[in-house]
Write a structure and sequence with these properties.
- By secondary structure, the chain is mainly α.
- The chain has one domain.
- It contains four helices and no strands.
- It starts with a helix and ends with a helix.
Length: 106
């Protein structure tokens, strides 16, 4: 199993779980929907990486950039690791694997 697949599936599961936690703690429907959709799409990117690596990388990259754009500013402002720092760290990991997937293989 590739690093791309592992990181995207784990990040997707944690993102979806975070959306559920946001809903349970604050009754935030936007957290539930956004976490569920973005988490599911990251998992899809991980699963697709075997059969369609280019499409998986594009999907994973887009979702990761959107999540990073939302959570990195919040983390830099609040300095609170949960949830903004964790999501930022996960999406940076996803983006690293996306970039590496486009580099020529040796």
């Amino acid at each position: 199993m590739s690093a791309f697949k592992i990181i995207h599936i784990v990040a997707g599961a944690l993102t979806a779980a975070g959306g559920l936690i946001g809903f349970l703690k604050a009754k935030s429907i936007p957290s539930l929907v956004a976490g569920g959709v973005s988490g599911a799409l990251l998992i899809v990117a991980g699963v697709l990486s075997s059969s369609s690596p280019r499409n998986a990388a594009i999907l994973g990259g887009i979702i990761s950039l959107l999540l990073l754009g939302r959570f990195l500013p919040a983390f830099l402002k609040s300095k609170a690791f949960m949830p903004a720092g964790m999501v930022s760290l996960l999406t940076i990991g996803c983006l690293v694997t996306v970039i590496l997937s486009f580099l020529p293989k040796r």
